[in-house]
TrEMBL record:
GO terms for molecular function: carbon-sulfur lyase activity; metal ion binding. Coiled coil: none annotated. Pfam families: GFA (PF04828). Belongs to the Gfa family. Keywords: Lyase, Metal-binding, Zinc. This is DUF636 domain protein. It comes from Penicillium angulare. Residues 7-118 form the CENP-V/GFA domain. It comes from the Eukaryota.
Length: 144
């Protein structure tokens, strides 16, 4: 039996710590306006996992959730962040009020070597800043 990969991560103040077990589904770059605002950057970089792969090790009581209802896709996105330092940690979506099984983990919060995280898909490319070129070898979508 092969050992599953374990990734640990935290918010900036390290009051919230988490662990991910197993392989990601994909590495996502989102160029939509809400993800830009949430990340404070030109795009949001995250990894898609199944919720059961992500476990909060410490500081679960520090997590706050913003229900982002004004999205271009029409889906409600639950954006989780640290109530102390403000780090954006997780993104989960619900369709018609029903939570999904996916969780997107902000790549910058993962304790990884910079070469370990590579995007595989870009979405909302129609909103990509003109000075930002497509990422190498990614599947690109105009919207979702």
């Amino acid at each position: 039996m092969t050992e599953q990969k374990i990734i640990k991560g935290s918010c900036l103040c390290r009051k919230i710590r988490y662990q991910i077990t197993g392989a990601r589904v994909l590495g996502l770059i989102c160029h939509c306006n809400n993800c830009r605002k949430s990340s404070g950057s030109a795009f949001l970089a995250s990894s898609y996992y199944v919720k059961s792969q992500v476990r909060i090790l410490e500081g679960g009581e520090m997590i706050r959730v913003f229900e982002d209802e004004r999205t271009a896709s029409g889906n409600v996105l639950n954006r989780s962040f640290c109530s102390n330092c403000g780090s954006s940690l997780f993104l989960a979506r619900s369709v018609n009020g029903i939570p999904g099984d996916a969780v997107f983990v902000s790549s910058g919060t993962m304790d990884l070597d910079g070469e370990e995280w590579v995007p595989t898909k870009e979405v909302w490319c129609k909103d990509r800043y003109s000075w930002l070129h497509p990422f190498h070898n990614t599947d690109t979508k105009s919207t979702m």
